[in-house]
Design goal:
Number of strands: 10
Radius of gyration: 31 Å
Structural class: alpha+beta
Number of helices: 10
Strand content: 15-25%
Distance between the termini: 52 Å
Length: 271
């Protein structure tokens, strides 16, 4: 091995003071170090997994390997402490009550996706399953695009028709003065002149599309065959605005939902 006194700078042949940790090129100054990096596109970072011959193994190599093992242990520990990484994606490592909620939703034909606990939508969701009543009580977000407002309702029974749940917003008799002011346009339009849409989740198309729901039917019937992320977000729009939204044709709806179900099943099998 070349002694330190005989090492020459690769750039200017002056006595070398530095050695590149990555490619072992000798340099004498900061200017030569920068020139070496520019000429060879070297980042100067040692390849910690590079092969090292036994005869080249020294105390510095041992110390570097030891530090690499320490960094690996730290990264593993940080990943174990990180809520998002520990959750491993949608719906894994769920508490028993949430796992039961997913099972009950699935038995009703609804695919329920659950975010990790650190997500805002997970924190906002208070949907729960009543064992005594054998009923799912949903959190529902109502979006009124024409009024630029939205409201979150908690504990809406799956057996309640959408028309009943919407009455507090669209009927002046059942709404507060504040709601009457904010939803004046909708209340003037009336229940019979609005449509309720649910954004379709996990479709192959990149374009945002919607399911049109039946206002006269229950929440349970409307969510059958749908995929819900945490809780349903329902868009209430005037009927004459329906051409502005990409509504899924019921004839192709089932095939696309089946595709989503298959992807979920494959993911669960891998887990």
């Amino acid at each position: 091995m070349e002694s330190d006194s005989n090492r020459k700078c690769s750039g200017c042949e002056e006595p070398a003071k530095y050695c590149c940790p990555r490619c072992s090129v000798n340099s004498c100054s900061l200017a030569c170090v920068k020139k070496h990096k520019e000429d060879s596109s070297c980042d100067g970072i040692r390849d910690k997994t590079a092969y090292c011959k036994v005869e080249d193994f020294n105390d510095m190599t041992l110390l570097s390997d030891y530090r690499f093992l320490e960094e690996s242990a730290t990264a593993i520990d940080n990943a174990a402490r990180d809520k998002l990484k520990r959750a491993g994606g949608l719906g894994s490592n769920l508490p028993k009550w949430l796992h039961r909620l997913k099972i009950e939703a699935k038995s009703r034909g609804t695919t329920l996706k659950i975010f990790p606990a650190c997500f805002t939508k997970r924190k906002q969701n208070s949907t729960w399953y009543s064992h005594k009543e054998r009923t799912i009580y949903w959190t529902v977000c109502w979006v009124f695009p024409q009024a630029n407002v939205s409201y979150n309702d908690k504990k809406i029974s799956e057996n309640v028709p959408l028309s009943s749940a919407l009455a507090k917003y669209l009927s002046p008799k059942h709404s507060s003065v504040e709601l009457q002011q904010q939803l004046m346009f909708y209340q003037a339009t009336g229940m019979k002149s609005v449509k309720v849409l649910l954004q379709a989740e996990f479709l192959s198309s990149k374009k945002t599309r919607y399911h049109e729901l039946e206002i006269s039917e229950s929440l349970k019937e409307n969510l059958r065959g749908k995929t819900i992320v945490e809780y349903p977000v329902l868009y209430v729009i005037p009927s004459n605005h329906i051409p502005c939204y990409s509504v899924i044709n019921p004839e192709i709806e089932s095939s696309e939902e089946s595709e989503s179900d298959n992807e979920e099943s494959e993911g669960e099998n891998k887990d």
